[in-house]
Amino acid sequence: MFKIDVQFSRGARQFDMRLNAGAGVTALVGPSGAGKTSLLRALAGLEPSHGTIELAGRALSGGNKAVPPHRRHLGMVFQEPRLLDHLTVEENIRLKRQGDLVALAARLGINDLLARQPHDLSGGEKQRVMLARALHQNPDALLLDEPLTALDPAKREAMIAFLRDVFAELEIPVLYVTHAMEEAARLADNIAVIEKGKIVAQGPTQDILALRSDAHLLSRVAGHVAALDDDYGLAQINIGGQMLEVANRGLEIGRAVQLNIWARDVMLAKTRLEGISARNQLTGRIQQMEAIDPSTTDIFVKVGEANIRARVMAKTVADLGLAPGGDIFVIIKSASIE
Hints:
The protein has helices at about 35-45, 90-95, 100-110, 125-135, 155-170, 180-185, 205-210, 315-320, and strands at about 1-10, 15-20, 25-30, 50-55, 60, 65, 75, 140-145, 175-180, 190-195, 200-205, 220-230, 235-240, 240-245, 255-260, 265-270, 280-295, 295-305, 305-315, 325-330. By secondary structure, it is of the alpha+beta class. It has two domains: about 1-210, P-loop containing nucleotide triphosphate hydrolases (Rossmann fold, 3-Layer(aba) Sandwich); about 220-335, CATH 2.40.50.100. It has a six-stranded mixed β-sheet, with helices on both faces. The longest helix is centred in the middle third of the chain and has 17 residues, at about 155-170. It starts with a strand and ends in a 6-residue tail after the last strand. InterPro entries: AAA+_ATPase (IPR003593), ABC_transporter-like_ATP-bd (IPR003439), ABC_transporter-like_CS (IPR017871), Mo/tungstate-bd_C_term_dom (IPR008995), ModC_ABC_ATP-bd (IPR011868), Molybdenum_import_ModC (IPR050334), Mop_domain (IPR004606), P-loop_NTPase (IPR027417). Keywords: ATP-binding, Cell inner membrane, Cell membrane, Membrane, Molybdenum, Nucleotide-binding, Translocase, Transport.
């Protein structure tokens, strides 16, 4: 558990941050200049601050004492890759530290990069190497400062999927800085919103999204892996007795998972449909309807224990006669579920 109560200044700007972050991913979200990166650097001991920082019951700073950066046992991934060109990838990861790299390299998909030089790597590969360096020291917490900023859209999408799998295996606090709420929603268990040097809201991702007009309409659905289809690379996820098919990215039977479903990717039907590409058709009951504007309505559907949000046109509500308490089919493309 990170317990943070710090104050610092950067020029004329004042910052006052209070945050508790346990195991899992906490995204620090806010505009440029809000203090996100400065907070990470203060936690790492790279910039001075006042107040207290505790990690797993160990004081990193407080009173007149501060643990030096190299003894804080934190892993950090910067926005721009910081690799030494005269060293191989393996040497960049080790930095003279001992320990087995085989399992870590396999986990991060960089086995075939270890003998190469940094100048031969793509942007995404460099960020994987930076992540490997941070994890190789078995840190007590991991800090990431907008690691996807320099990547093009296609590589960013691939990296988000990759990071989701890596983060799911970690049992330490992860603080992830981003200015994009959608990126935070896709990666984080919790979100802290930073504005003008203060944390103005913090809590579970779904709760924070519900407070914002730019919530990006995300539903988070919990379940477990019930079956695998190796022929087509699919996994069946049990969500309260109903099955959702998703792309299998290294899942194992019995594993608990959390799925992201975007309201824009959800269709509703009064009857089961035939001959369509969407593979998931779940039965549910309409719990709530919320008019967003004269043309748009959000429908909240209970499916097992999950609540799934769909955004539809107001005319669709009228044409289908949708109303709270009504039974409905929720239709979702497998490829759209994260």
